[in-house]
Amino acid sequence: MENAGTELRDVLLEARSLIARPDNNFFWSSWRDADAALREIDGLIAELERDQVPSRLTVSVLFAPTGPIQEVSLSSGWAVEFLAVAARFDVAAEAFYSRRPRWRRLLNWRPGRT
What is the pLDDT of residue 93? Predict the structure, then answer.
């Protein structure tokens, strides 16, 4: 896996460890519970590990202001930690997605993905 992909995967793994904390509150997030959240994040990590390009929109929404990870962080008491991970995500996502040639992004496009 290339460096930018490795960094993006590492950020997702860090977010995963925060989401997996035992007393998290998912009430305000779009996820039903920890299992649903972990399945989504694990799927994105698996795509990266298979050298696939996950949808930038899908990944970005997770870290967006009022996105599901931030909602869990605010409800669960680790909002400051989330902000640090989100800042790392911004850098990693820019490096990963901006260096991909347009033709490669088009080849990775599938219906239902942006």
Answer: 95
